[in-house]
Design goal:
Number of helices: 4
Number of domains: 1
Bound molecules: zinc ion
Largest sheet: 2 strands, antiparallel
Length: 122
């Protein structure tokens, strides 16, 4: 399998999901909720040069949408509760889960960009 700086894709993604630097896995790649650090504190790999933009948000919504909607169909929730109850609960659940999952998906996305070497065009 291809490597980047001795790191394979799976390792890079795992480091990303745990919000660590994809290159060394030692220092955090984020400060705060979603802000990427300029460079890794441990190995000085520049991290803010990788564009993450809206990608993580789309991936997270698709992921969470499936995680919420599919079980709702499976367990027949749509036929059990009235729409006035169902719609706000589903929208709320998807919203909260998206906000909860976003930082971890963004970490994995940042790692993927780093692994592929897709830097921001300047
Ligand atoms: Zn590092």
């Amino acid at each position: 399998m291809a490597m980047r700086d001795g790191v394979d894709l799976g390792t890079a993604l795992m480091r990303g999901v745990t919000r660590k630097c994809p290159c060394c896995g030692q220092a955090p790649a984020f400060r705060g909720y979603l802000k990427v650090v300029d460079a890794c504190r441990n190995c000085q790999t520049p991290l803010s040069v990788y564009p993450t933009d809206d990608g993580p948000a789309y991936i997270t919504m698709i992921l969470i949408g499936h995680l919420v909607i599919a079980p709702a169909f499976m367990f027949g929730i749509f036929y059990t509760y009235p729409m006035q109850v169902l719609v706000p609960v589903m929208v709320g659940a998807i919203g909260l889960l998206t906000l909860a999952a976003l930082p971890f998906v963004k970490g994995a996305f940042l790692s993927l960009m780093w692994y592929l070497g897709l830097k921001q065009a300047r």
